[in-house]
Amino acid sequence: MERIAVISDIHGNMPALEAVLEDIRSRTINRIVCLGDLAGKGPSSAETVDLIKEHCEVVIKGNWDYYLADQKGKEALIWHQDKLGAERLKYMRELPIYQEFYISGKLLRLCHASPNDLFHRVYLSTEQSERLKLFEPTPTLNLEADVVGYGDIHGAHIDHFEGKTIFNVGSVGNPLDMPQASYGIIEGRLNDDNKGPFSIALVRVPYDIDLAINQAGLTDMPEKQEYINELKTAIYRGRKVTHL
Question: What kind and span of H or E run contains 76?
Fold first, then answer.
């Protein structure tokens, strides 16, 4: 049996990433997959990219990785691009958008948002027909997936429908469901297409939010206050909150 840690959406938050990596080490898990959004939003884009490159055997491209590597003009992007430098941006530009393999007889697919569309965003409330698009065949194996794990929406969950399983590992550095870092652990017989035991677990890791806020506060980073508010409240900056 093999255990694989699946992390996502670090967004330049070093205290959160370090806490999650320490938790993974404490569980003696040696394989880590990252589902993208390494940088942006938080102050430590360069440092988080370097740490992900060091510790993750597979890294998948997120929408922020695409924006940072290939888009120009916005003040926030320019600030992080300057911190990242040309070599890291090249690395992010060349990341794949999905990975799939068999584990305990199930075809497992990992992606940031969707394997065939980096910007196809899926929530628990999304219509089932749209959610099923995550399972559609890809050019790699040309087969429907049995299990799909993804990031992107910063909210961890596991759901089963129509004989499929979908799970979201949440966000390490910018969680928007509760103010704790989140990641997933999958366990099974790796690269085995025979049926066997298989499990998915979601893990919450407390981290030093005050340190993350202080690190951001010491910079001239654009959208700094919006980022700090999200760390404190786990409420997305674009979400309207109604107090009854």
Answer: helix 75-93
pLDDT < 70 stretches in the chain: 238-244
Residue 42's domain is classified under what CATH number? 3.60.21.10
**pLDDT recorded at residue 240:** 44
Amino acid at 209: I
240 part of a folded domain: no
Length of the chain, in residues: 244
The mean of the pLDDT values for the chain is: 95
pLDDT at 73: 79
Q: What is the 3-state secondary structure (H, E, C) of the chain?
A: CEEEEEECCCCCCHHHHHHHHHHHHHCCCCEEEECCCCCCCCCCHHHHHHHHHHHCCEECCCHHHHHHHHCCCCHHHHHHHHHHHHHHHHHHHCCCCEEEEEECCEEEEEECCCCCCCCCCCCCCCCHHHHHHHHCCCCCCCCCCCEEEECCCCCCEEEEECCEEEEECCCCCCCCCCCCEEEEEEEECECCCCCCCCEEEEEEECCCHHHHHHHHHCCCCCCHHHHHHHHHHCCCCCCCCCCC
pLDDT (tens digit per residue) in 144-158: 999 999 999 999 999
Residue 238 lies inside a defined structural domain of this protein: no
Query: What's residue 2's pLDDT?
Result: 96
Does the CA dihedral 8-13-14-18 come out positive or negative?
A: negative
What pTM was estimated for this model as a whole?
Answer: 0.95
